[in-house]
Amino acid sequence: MYSTMKRNNYALITGGSSGIGLAFARELAANNWNLILVSRDKNLKNIAEKLEIEFKVDVEALRGDLSVETDLEKIKKRLRDDDKPVEILVNSAGFVLHDSLVHGNVERQRIAFKVMAEAILILSQAAVATMKKRKNGMIINIASTSAWQYNGNYSALKRWVVVYTNSLALELRGSGVSATAICPGETKTNFHANGGLKRPGIPSWLWCQPEQIARTGLQAAKKGRAVYVPTMKWRLIAWAFQHCQSLARFVSYKLVTGRVEEMGQKHD
Fold first, then answer.
1. Burial code of 11-20, b = ≥16 C-beta within 10 A, e = fewer?
2. Which residues of 82-117 are buried (b: 16+ CB within 10 A; e: fewer)?
3. What confidence tens digit (pLDDT) does each residue in 58-83 have?
4. What is the DSSP string of 170-206?
5. Dihedral of the CA atoms 189, 120, 59, 74 (nearest 10)?
6. Which terminal CB of the chain, N or C, has fewer other CB atoms within 10 Å?
7. Is the pLDDT of residue 150 over 60?
8. Helix, strand or coil for residue 132?
9. Phi and psi of 97, rounded to 5°?
10. Which residues share a beta bridge with 39?
């Protein structure tokens, strides 16, 4: 499925204009995959054109907001196109969600549910319907090691992604279609800055690069892994969070209180 041969097949990537989504786009384009980039980014068309020139593949720019039903329908329609079939769906769209659960913006959290859970459910189902007919395809959902922490609704949503993808992978067994949840640790992107926050003050050696996430994530998906945590250091951290709840709660408490305080200062 993940091949270096040029074909009339496409990979659709939500959140494909920046960060981990763009890293997946570049990795796939370097291996001769045609792309459909989905994003709200006003510069999406320019980004698509640059990728076309650099990698000499077809790149479609599909502007859309995953929290808007009409935009979601537009993306579903593209996933069902048999003339230019989508073989890989990467659900990477997301945003910082570190508001207080007590005093936070409920509307922002509602939108987060739509973008980081409901859209994954809807788009994955649409993609699988056509992929199963061809007995070939990959669903890749970007989760996070935060799935094993208690960092507000962001952790809750990422945990949902892990459980949903695991369940989907079981249901797809033997169909020729795979589902993989990729759970990166802290990664050097504009993710925090776009949410108006500072990057976490963790040691430099803990940071991952988006290119590394995309390259190894695609390899894991090709092998049919249902859940994959990139890099050994973050696999060990995720394992520790899973098996030592007191550690997960302690780290989460430090993160939550720090972020809530930072967000409060921003609002003040």
1. bbbbbbbbbb
2. eeebbbbbbbbbbebbbbbeeebeeeebebbbbbbb
3. 999 999 999 999 999 999 999 999 99
4. HHHTTTTEEEEEE---SBSSSHHHHTT-PPP---GGG
5. -130
6. C
7. yes
8. helix
9. -140, 85
10. 63
User: Is the separation of the CB atoms in 231 and 249 below 8 Å?
Assistant: no
Tell me which residue has tokens 């579903």.
76
pLDDT band at 13 (very low <50, low <70, confident <90, very high): very high
Does the pLDDT at position 193 exceed 60?
no
Sign (positive or negative) of CA dihedral 66, 67, 72, 74: negative
Question: Per residue in 236-263, pLDDT tens?
Answer: 999 998 888 887 777 777 776 666 555 5
What is the helix (H) or strand (E) element at residue 139, kind and residue range? Answer: strand 137-142
DSSP at 105: -
What the block records as the tokens of 127 is: 């993609």
Look at residues 60, 90, 57, 96 and name the one whose alpha carbon lies nearest to residue 78: 60
Contact status, residue 218 vs residue 28, Cβ threshold 8 Å: yes
What value does the CA radius of gyration of the chain take, rounded to a whole number of Å?
A: 18
Q: What is the pTM of this model?
A: 0.88
114's torsion region: left (phi>0), alpha (psi -120 to 50) or beta? alpha
